[in-house]
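We treat protein structure as text, and this decision shapes the records that our systems exchange. Because each token names a local backbone shape, the row as a whole describes the fold. For reference, a complete record is included directly beneath this paragraph.
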Amino acid sequence: MSYGEDDDAWDLIYEQTRKSLAEDPVQSHLGTVGDAIEARVKQCLKEAEDLRKATFYGPALTSAVTAIELMIRFLLLRPLVSGAFLSSEWESILADRIGEGLTTRDRELIRAVLRQWDLDITVVKLANGKPLWQSLVDRKVGVFEKRNRVVHQGARVEDSDVEIALECARVMLADVVFSIAQSFGFTLEKTGTWSRIRRDREGGGWSEAHFNPWDPIEGKAYDLPSTRK
């Protein structure tokens, strides 16, 4: 092997090793907090649906958007940034943008972080064909803006606004969060939980990876329910 070929081979080995090291903290984060956060997300969506049926549209919209922000913060931003290479720039992002809970900054950051992992949230569509991301962040009609008007200005919203927010949350969970979970090796369809990954081995048999479930909001261990819905 010539010097140049040897160089190329080491570059390939380095990139593969670096990718593996980067993915480990992502998997560890999601495997640890995924169950607790998904449970909170689904509880928020159930409350939003119940409030919608009772025609409390403002609180319903607020609950649906809370579900979206939980997913962005705990199932997208934090794990994906933890898997990036922590240069001083990334360390600053972790300390200043995530630690302080600035949700506006979260939204600005999420597209760039997802692109780092070859995921383009701007191409994800709702059932009506409208882009998910635009439906979330549009400064006039986006669900984030409407939620802010409800919370800070006492604005009124309609049933159709709640319907869009719920659709955004469901698509975010199914087409973004669960897609990322699959990309990082999670087997939710087999194990029913984030904290256990079951892999089939070539030639038969299987192996499992386990994580200790943790609720990052309560700051304590999370007890898994007997069934996952």
In short: The beta strands are 196-200, 206-210, 214-215, 220-221.
